[in-house]
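Exercise: predict the fold of this chain.
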Amino acid sequence: MKRHSGVLLEAALAAEGEGNYRDAVQNFSTYVSFQPEDIESKVKLGNAYAELTEQDDVSFEEISRALRFLEDIVRKMPK
């Protein structure tokens, strides 16, 4: 699957560019699970989560996932 992770990244970037943050989050999340060293994509995932939480139809579950992801990233930052 790692070989196909580029397709996920392209889909995530396309969704992000179209303002489809739900799909962007899904594709970035899957991509980052295969490429955890890609810091730039983690930042893009965080931004997509932040944008998703601003949508009128955001669910409580999506907000919760966004907060967990962002909290985890902050905890892993060097001091």
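Check your answer against the key: The chain has a mean pLDDT of 93.
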